[in-house]
Amino acid sequence: VVEVSGRTYPVNIIYSDIDSLDMDRDQRIIECLRDIQSNHKVTQQAGDVLVFLSGEREIREASLAIKRAQLPHTEVVPLYARLSLAEQSKIFSPHRGRRVVLSTNVAETSLTVPGIGYVIDTGRARLSRYSYRTKVQRLPIEAISQASANQRAGRCGRVSNGICYRLYEEDDFNNRPEFTDPEIVRTNLAAVILQMLHLRIGDIRSFPFVDPPDSRMMSDVFKLLEELQAVDSKGKLTKLGKQLVSIPLDPRFARMIFEASKNGSLAEVMIITSGLSIQDPRERPADKQQAADQAHAQWRDESSDFMSLLNLWQHFESKRQELSTNQYSKYCRANHVSFLRMKEWRDLHHQVHSACRALKLIENQKPAEYAAIHQALLSGLLGQVGIREDKWEFLGTRNRKFFIFPGSGLSKKPPKWVMVGSLMETAKQYGLNAAKIDSDWLEPLAAHLVKKTYSAPFYHQKSGQVMAKERQTLFGLSIVEGKNTVYGNVAPVEARQISLQQTLVESGHRGKGIFYSAIQIPETKLQGLEDRFRLRDLQAAHKVISSFFEFERA
Predict the structure, then answer these.
(1) Which end of the chain has fewer CB atoms at under 10 Å, N or C?
(2) Residues with Cβ < 8 Å from 261, sequence gap 6 or more?
(3) What is residue 47's three-state secondary structure?
(4) pLDDT per residue over 307-341, tens digit each?
(5) Which regions of 122-161 does DSSP assign to beta strands (E)?
């Protein structure tokens, strides 16, 4: 029973039987729509139909199937968050016949669709979940909870009696969890924990959360903050961490801001980070995809999606200053860009700019180079880099494999090394907002994170030092291979032994010192005597010579 303005309206729940569960999902929806038409002829109950689906793809497939079924007097309207405002507003416009609204869970609580008399609930939804193991924000399709199912059913009892068709059995409903997991246990809490550390509320791990997150997720947050140098190895807030709190952005983006202020790219990075913090302003209506792609192509950068975002901002900022508000709004619409999201972007950029000014960060007056911009961005994305293994697939940190998102400017010609703004797992694991990087940028930025191993030490005649091949790994991903490094700085005792062995014992030294010449003269004579008398025991063994030099030093 649904209560609205003091009145109650009953909702009749109809569950699917076992036989219908074998049918295709879209076919079951069509059968429900036919049943609604038959019911209308008998009861004359009016009302539109709201169908809950798990995502855009399912909405497009269901829309096509319903149109092919050619149901009389039926209009199909999609509804999901990425639709433009004009398309979302269609659900409020007057119409004739019966309207079928195909929606994600955006219509469950965020938005009330008027005139709904029937609900068809598929019982599935795409929920955002953060995996502390893979460090990836996943979007799996899951069965909804009982509370969500009841909320969906209530959408058709707002103004009159309603009927809700559930495309699953009643036993399935009864076996589902009572409530949906709260967001605090299925999302990354880096920004929250950083703010709590700044407030000095005590041990975060023992804080009495209403729904406490998993301890492993808490540990993952501290590892991320340590990666950003916001906390030290003991989990204490650093000087940089105290400053990051002042930037009204995700800690990753705030870290980029501070790096940009050091390398002269703050103006560009403020624009990019604030743009990444809102929903993408570029719209791609289902019926105008080609036109939208052509319009967006003028700002595309084939080396960096971040630069594409910057190009978009610069273009529309110049237009905003040239045009009136009404003309600017029309220009946005004509180019398939959301006027409201551009306004939101500008407002957030203003907040970030004010915060940077309060921190006395220096903004560059001249346009920054590609390298400076992307080195600043890389400082917050060190765990999200990858090297191309084959034509399309990348190997990332922590042994993760991913593909560049098909809508990226880099998808057709992927570079060798990339960084991505985020990793999202759907059917595959995709890197969103990718950019080409130089692997040489990683070593100085990730110095506090890399693990170094050394192999094949040798005496380098030209430099007169013992060198070794250095390998550096960042979260398991090799970023430096075969780099010559002074081995004496790493293992001085072993380096000295190698130096003695390969210089004095094995005569690898090429200097002109008196001491070395004095050794070489008798060695040469003894070598000649051995050759002359065909003996091989006149010279001391290498081990004895090495011991002699060790003893002499002592």
Answers:
(1) C
(2) 356, 361, 362, 363
(3) coil
(4) 999 999 999 999 999 999 999 999 999 999 999 89
(5) 124-126, 129-131, 136-138, 141-143
Compute the CA torsion angle 50, 53, 57, 59 (nearest 10 deg).
-10
**Could you give the CA distance from residue 385 to residue 406 in angstroms, rounded to a whole number?**
18
3-state secondary structure 390-423: CCCEEEEHHHCEEEECCCCCCCCCCCCEEEEEEE
Average of per-residue pLDDT values in the chain: 85
Q: Rounded distance, CA 221 to CA 223, Å?
A: 5
Digit-coded pLDDT (tens) for 340-373: 899 999 999 999 999 999 999 999 999 999 999 9
Q: pLDDT (tens digit, 9 = 90+) per residue, 152-197?
A: 988 887 777 889 999 999 999 999 999 988 888 888 888 889 999 9
Which of the 8 DSSP states describes residue 179?
A: S
- Adjacent-strand bridge partners of 11: 162
The residue count of the chain comes to: 554
Structure tokens at 435: 């950019």
* φ, ψ of residue 407 in degrees (nearest 5): -80, -5
Hey, which residues does 424 pair with through a beta bridge? 137, 430
How is residue 199 annotated by DSSP?
H
Residue-wise DSSP of 439-477: GGGHHHHTTTT-EEEEEEEEEETTTTEEEEEEEEEETTE
Nearest to 348 by CA among 282, 279, 277: 277
Q: 215-227 and 190-199 helices cross at what angle (nearest 10)?
A: 80
Q: What is the DSSP string of 514-554?
A: HHHHHHHHHHHHHHHHHHHHT-S-SSPPHHHHHHHHHHHH-
Residues 6 or more apart in contact with residue 311 via CB below 8 angstroms: 299, 300, 301
User: CB count, 10 Å around CB of 405?
Assistant: 20
Residue given tokens 């999902």 in the structure block: 25
Question: Of 84, 128, 87, whose CA–CA distance to 105 is shortest?
Answer: 128
116-121 β-sheet, strand order: 11-15, 162-166, 116-121, 48-52, 98-103, 74-79
